[in-house]
Amino acid sequence: MEGRWRAAAGLSKWAFLLASLMSYIASDVAAEEGGDGDGRKGLCSTDLTTFLPFPYSNLPNMVCQPLWNSYLLRYSQSKDNEITIVLSTIYTSGWVGIGFSRDGKMLNSSCIVGWVNQEGQGRIKQYHIKGFTPGEIKADRGELPLTNVPPYVAVQGATIYLSFQLKFNTTLKTQPLLLAFSTKTPHHHRLTVHEDKTTIYFDFSQGKADDSSSGVDSYSSPGILKDRRSHGTLAVLGWGFFLPTGAILARYLSRKDKVWYYFHVPIQFIGFLLGVAAVIVGVSLYNKMHVFFPAHRGIGIFLLLITVLQVVAFFTRPSSDSKYRRYWNWYHNWVGRICLFLGAVNILLGIHIADAGQAWKIGYGFLLGFLLVTVVVLEALLRLRPSAEADNKHPPFSINSIDREISL
């Protein structure tokens, strides 16, 4: 009994260390994502005349502002409400896009997308976003008031430039802009799913992002960043720490006294609640951002389903002398293992999708490595235990036994 309580105390210490580690991760991610990007201002002096045609190469009263990541917006707005735009960003492959939306949402927005195909030819087209799947993104459609000046795309060094001209009925002021990219090249003008996106409210009359405007949270806004960190932290704590810890207690301490059960149930219940909270925050993020990560979202929903089934199974557990108890144990054990495996996969997938940085990768890598090493060591001890117990039950052959037999 004393050994079991000592093990529980050790687990509480690890829980404290994990909480400290997650606090460090959250603060580190906040610091990483809080940069202002003013260093990109120096790119505004790039000579556009060497690779862009008129009028994109000569923008009178040009305004140049960093937007997001490496995105840089150059534009010039005339008195007759004609606006010439040159959007640039770092480019290696795939497509780059900028969209105009009425409400800041991707749905029903119109976008200009540029890329370089496999033959090395630049392509730029307008798209209408009628849905969130590639088949619902229609090429050569949209509501942008393009002028007779054809859009133009160019790659200079490691930077791609999307150039186009619009004419509005009134002066363009605050406008929700959608910025997105993918590293996969469109096939037959069919866009692949974006790998990252953001929404920014930009005031073209003032030449800056309008931080005071209301509407959809930006992918990089403080509210979204807080939700992203909360989603990741809850998932790591629930599916990455508490549920695996409870499973380890059940497998490797259950052959001793019953104290393991009184730790297993509350630890698993805490892990379940944290997992549900992670899903709730994830659904909220999906509704705010309209991102399309089917694998991560699908695994998360499936995990929620099987963890709910595990909770239901707990309340319907047959008695120990029931003939169905054997099948219940088999089901509970294997569904639990599937849950833990998919939980680890989805956490890694989420860290990759969010581009969370080294702190998250190192932190979860350390936690996962520690759990795996613990399982390997305890599994080895479990395999060795039957032979040791058998030796204790059947003591080795001794001379004393021979003497007793002779005396008889």
From TrEMBL:
- Report the residue ranges that make up the DOMON domain in this protein: 69-184
- What residue stretch is flagged as signal peptide? 1-31
Q: Which residues form the Cytochrome b561 domain?
A: 193-387
Membrane-spanning intervals of the chain: 234-253, 265-286, 298-315, 335-354, 360-382
What GO CC annotations are associated with the protein? membrane
Keywords per UniProt: Electron transport, Membrane, Signal, Transmembrane, Transmembrane helix, Transport
- Please state the protein's primary subcellular location: membrane
InterPro entries with a match to the protein in the record: Cyt_b561/ferric_Rdtase_TM, DOH_DOMON, DOMON_domain
Matching entries from Pfam families are given as: Cytochrom_B561, DOMON
Compartments (UniProt record)? Membrane
The name of this protein is Cytochrome b561 and DOMON domain-containing protein-like protein
Originating organism: Salvia divinorum
